[in-house]
Design brief:
The structure is a homodimer. Chain A is mostly beta strands. Chain A has helices spanning 71-80, 144-147; strands at 2-10, 21-31, 36-43, 46-55, 61-69, 82-95, 98-105, 113-118, 132-135. The first copy, chain A, is 9% helix and 51% strand. The termini of chain A are far apart. Chains A and B meet through strand 4, strand 5 and helix 1 of A and strand 4, strand 5 and helix 1 of B. Chains A, B: Pfam families: CYTH (PF01928).
Chain lengths: 155, 155
Amino acid sequence: MIEIERKFLVKSEAYQAVATSKTRIAQGFLNTEAERTVRVRIKDNQGFITVKGKSNATGTSRFEWEKEISFSEATDLIDLCKPVILEKIRYEVPFANHLFEVDRFLGENKGLVIAEVELAHEDEHFEKPQWLGKEVTGDVRYYNSQLSKKPFAEW
Amino acid sequence: MIEIERKFLVKSEAYQAVATSKTRIAQGFLNTEAERTVRVRIKDNQGFITVKGKSNATGTSRFEWEKEISFSEATDLIDLCKPVILEKIRYEVPFANHLFEVDRFLGENKGLVIAEVELAHEDEHFEKPQWLGKEVTGDVRYYNSQLSKKPFAEW
């Protein structure tokens, strides 16, 4: 499938009070090339392997394929991943008619908080909550695959 | 799981007459690094995604994880793979108490025929059929991931 999303910085902690879920995520990359990212993720006790293709010109849409795998398979595969393994807390935050996923990074990316909203098509309108900051869609530095190579602490 | 196998060149076509199966395989790689190979394979109408780790010092054993995926998922993922996509015919050839898998390569690797035998442990004894040639276990040039980067026609 094609994933269409826009990405923003987050300028206050107000999202936390309205979050409907909070999940711990650890993820590593078997490949961080822009043309073919291969990600291994552990989300609570679930495992996933995800392949993403190259983004379009605006950085909004991208081929994405994902398969659930066991927790034990995921831990084996995370061991094979390139350093650094990303650690983050994901908050699900509904606002108006959309769901925002807010990632608060830990470890070497501590201090970075990014919100993503998934859209049905590139031009879809959505209302912006007050805590939403500057748009960073398409800015390669904020790709998770890049944050595993050059974490926020080194910027 | 850990995969233990030895690899040989094949010096005659005699294996074809005793093969019990013959399958067409197409495969590409999402990553060809020695530390973490990610392979997408289409075997007849079945799809697979496979992650392999680094080989041990002798090149005999290696972590391997594989998951079956649909034909349609596999074709989507093969489109994302690095060039070159490998094409080969695989023959299953039982001999004495072991099963040999013989890969006859097509396309840019035409002329290359490689037999592999899977073992229960590194020192396991196995009888060698007459058509088996020189051992190439651990020779990086014969890794499929390498054949996709530097095919036999360019040697």
